[in-house]
Design a protein that fits this description.
The complex is a heterodimer of chains A (283) and B (441).
Chain A: H1 2-21, H2 41-47, H3 50-83, H4 88-95, H5 97-100, H6 103-113, H7 120-127, H8 140-168, H9 172-180, H10 185-211, H11 216-222, H12 234-244, H13 248-282
Helix pairs in contact in A: 1-13, 3-8, 6-8, 6-11, 8-10, 9-10, 10-13, 12-13
Chain B: E1 9-11, E2 14-15, E3 18-19, E4 23-25, E5 34-40, H1 43-60, E6 63-70, H2 72-85, E7 92-96, H3 116-119, H4 124-129, E8 131-132, E9 135-136, E10 139-144, E11 146-151, H5 152-156, H6 158-168, H7 178-188, H8 203-216, H9 233-247, H10 260-268, E12 274-278, H11 282-285, E13 297-300, E14 315-321, H12 328-338, H13 341-349, H14 357-370, H15 373-388, H16 399-414, H17 420-437
Helix pairs in contact in B: 1-12, 1-13, 8-9, 8-16, 13-14, 14-15, 16-17
Classes of the chains: A mainly alpha (283), B alpha+beta (441).
């Protein structure tokens, strides 16, 4: 019973309140607007708002690319560290360094790295004869790539740590038996290591897909969703609508639509996790 | 009815080597009173607090508790959240003339609190700009307007003079119009090593710069009913100015991500010929420790647009007192101290523009006596510009929301994603929706 009361107060009530505000024209600076019910007006406006759907689509793409690249790089790092017999602990600690930086700080660092005028990247390229500065944070594709690079740098180690834990837990016998039977490294990895790792992959994916909105600070610092909305993601759009324009009712309507995105990602990864576990138990 | 102020005396304040005109002081005994305050933070703002807070505490026996100290945009968000939650448990907060109208009636009408003799010490026009719906909701701290800094040596160079005259058919002198700024910026540019000028490229910053150029071109953002009218020849001409400079590579490629620090540091780096900027940067630009252009800086009033008016987007930083403050007398005394002769002289010495006429006279006299020709030029230029060119943005609660609708469209046109007409048409449509929702028509 106490658990139910606590959960109701801490989770359910705020959720219901924010759901209610999405049916009102609630403005932070006009508290009275919280009590004006306007039905589905906010949702109707959003359905016809092209800017919102472009930001929605870009967020899906951003999540899909960033999470998969983080997985690939994380797996690579975990496999390399797993091979090391001397200094593995030190490397594991070093690997966790990017996680220790706050996303705001990461955003500042990478904004400086990709600054077109005084940034490290353009100065580095200049040494190799690229005279014209590259507008990393202005060009539509490059700006998104730059933000993704910062996000991947910041979060790959989460994948690496979880996958390394999985690698350390894999029994040695099947691997040694496979080698005795003449399997090469790729065959061992594909047929033994990877199936064992898949539950860890989907756990990592689920954790990261719920946690990835932390990247808001990175985007806000680097481009603020611009220029000309070229890097606008749901997080920057919702934050600006809610806190700068003070239109919290509309921002919450955006959030409730985007929650479906989170639920879809989480559901997909949970489904894959269960599937991977079942396959593992059959084998 | 509030208690009468304990001490309301005319006094002559002496500070530094110069004295300002007599001011009405507002001291009292506030022993046992603690005022909770939310202040704008950052290098150029905090020096004032370090001097004025101990001064006020020593003279009144009161205490100041700084609850929050953060940049203005973060402070704005925090105060909006406070309004929504009804948690206004502070007495004094930093404010700004461009922001004040958003906050409804949370701030006290200081006309009912501040004695007329105190208000008489401030510039009347600035007090007018500090008034929202007939209520004086803020005491002005310092005023801002922008003027054009430039590298003097570029204009003294004989080759530059001859080449410019040959190319453009008129003499190379500090620009009087924004068309001349464009010519000269393109002439001086040698990307990526050197750029003719730069501009702030996002958020309220570029919206404000666009706004002042529309006005200078003889246009306006809204009609008297707040219907958008900036999609006009004056608006297109203003936006085209930004586009032309960007396309000519007379501004850095990353300019659309620039805000005030980027442009200020850019000019100080010596890689920018001309820079429209606020008074507060003057001391920094001329400090050899911070700036490569120190000793080589000229300053002219902001140039004119095609309508014959100078750009002059202006506003004032200020302090407000909450309606919920339990110690309004003490808070009034603290507001006075924060904007007193002493306080304004401290900030004026850093290059900021005072809101009291007496301090203009005092700081100019001080700089003359010191033989500081550069700062003398700065104060004389900004004094004239604030008196003759300055105008505020529309003082309506929707200003920030409007700028958020406008700036992505300006950026889209500058980057070539849209034509200026299309961009302004889209922005105009969004602005119409904002104004309709707000009930203007």
């Amino acid at each position: 019973m106490p658990t139910l009361i606590i959960l109701t107060c801490v989770v359910l009530l705020p959720l219901l309140l924010s759901l209610w505000t999405s049916f009102t024209p609630f403005k932070l600076t006009k508290p009275d607007t919280l009590y004006r019910f306007v039905g589905f007006r906010n949702y109707e406006r959003l359905i016809g708002d092209l800017d919102f759907w472009i930001a929605f689509g870009r967020t899906v793409l951003f999540l899909a690319i960033a999470l998969n690249l983080e997985l690939v790089f994380g797996l690579g790092i975990a496999l390399l560290i797993n091979k090391i017999t001397y200094g593995q602990r030190t490397l594991r600690t070093l690997m966790m360094f990017p996680m220790m930086f706050s996303p705001i700080l990461v955003g500042f660092q990478w904004k400086y790295i990709f600054n077109d005028n005084i940034g490290l990247m353009n100065n580095f390229l200049r040494e190799f004869g690229v005279i014209q500065p590259i507008p990393w944070l202005v060009d539509g594709i490059l700006a998104n790539v730059s933000i993704m690079a910062a996000e991947i740098w910041s979060s790959t180690s989460v994948f690496a740590i979880l996958l390394l834990a999985g690698l350390l837990g894999i029994p040695k016998d099947p691997i040694e038996a496979a080698k005795v039977d003449g399997c090469n490294s790729w065959q061992v990895f594909k047929n033994i290591t990877l199936p064992f790792l898949m539950p860890f992959v989907f756990i990592a994916m689920t954790i990261r897909s719920l946690d990835v909105a932390r990247a808001y600070d990175i985007v806000q610092m680097m481009t603020g969703g611009g220029p000309a909305k070229r890097t606008e993601l749901l997080w920057t759009l919702i934050s600006r609508t809610g806190y700068v324009d003070a239109k919290m009712g509309m921002a919450n309507a955006m959030s409730y639509i985007s929650i479906f995105l989170s639920i879809a990602f989480t559901f997909f990864f949970f489904y894959k996790l269960v599937e991977a576990r079942q396959r593992l138990s059959y084998e | 009815m509030l208690r009468l102020f304990l001490s309301l005396i005319l006094a002559v304040s002496f500070f530094g080597s110069f004295s300002a005109k007599a001011e009405t002081e507002l001291w009292g005994d506030y022993s046992g009173v603690t005022l909770r305050v939310k202040l704008i933070g950052g290098g150029q703002y905090e020096g004032l607090y370090n001097e004025v807070i101990p001064w006020w505490e020593e003279n009144t026996g009161g205490k100041i508790e700084i609850v929050t100290q953060k940049n203005h945009f973060e402070l704005d968000k925090e105060i909006k959240k406070d309004i929504a939650s009804g948690n206004l448990d502070f007495c004094v907060a930093s404010n700004h003339t461009s922001f004040a109208s958003q906050y409804g009636d949370i701030y006290t009408d200081l006309n009912n609190i501040m004695p007329a003799s105190v208000l008489a010490d401030y510039t009347p026009l600035i007090l007018e700009h500090s008034t929202v719906n007939g209520r004086l909701v803020q005491m002005p701290r310092h005023s801002d307007v922008s003027n054009l800094y430039y590298q003097k040596s570029l204009y003294e160079d004989a080759d530059n003079k001859a080449n410019f005259k040959a190319k453009y058919g008129y003499d190379l002198t500090p620009p009087e119009t924004w068309d001349q700024v464009k010519d000269q910026a393109i002439f001086f540019s040698n990307p990526p090593d050197f750029y003719g000028t730069q501009y702030v490229g996002k958020e309220e910053a570029i919206a404000g710069r666009f706004y002042e150029l529309v006005i200078a071109n003889g246009g306006a953002l809204f009609d008297e009913d707040y219907r958008p009218i900036f999609n006009s020849p004056a608006g297109v001409e203003a936006l085209q100015w930004f586009i032309d400079l960007y396309n000519a590579k007379a501004v850095p490629d990353g300019v659309l991500n620039y805000l005030w620090d980027d442009t200020g540091l850019g000019f100080a780096s010596g890689t920018i010929a001309m820079n429209l900027d606020w008074a507060g940067w003057a001391g920094f630009f001329n400090d050899p420790e911070n700036s490569k252009v120190a000793g080589d800086i000229g300053l002219v009033r902001a140039p004119m647009g095609s309508g014959g008016l100078r750009t002059g987007w202006s506003g004032s930083h200020s302090f407000s007192m909450t309606e919920s403050c339990p110690d309004k007398e003490a808070a009034a005394s603290f507001l006075w101290a924060l904007t007193s002769n002493k306080a304004q002289m401290i900030e004026a010495r850093g290059g900021l523009s005072p809101t009291r006429p007496a301090i203009w006279d005092a700081i100019i006299a001080e700089k003359k006596a010191e033989g500081d020709e550069f700062m003398l030029m700065v104060f004389e230029t900004f004094k004239m510009s604030l008196a003759e060119d300055a105008f505020t943005p529309p003082l309506i609660p929707e200003w920030i929301e409007f700028t958020n609708a406008l700036y992505p469209e300006l950026q889209a046109a500058i980057l070539g994603d849209k034509s200026p007409e299309d961009a302004l048409a889209t922005a105009s449509k969004k602005a119409t929706e904002i104004m309709e929702d707000a009930g203007y028509f």
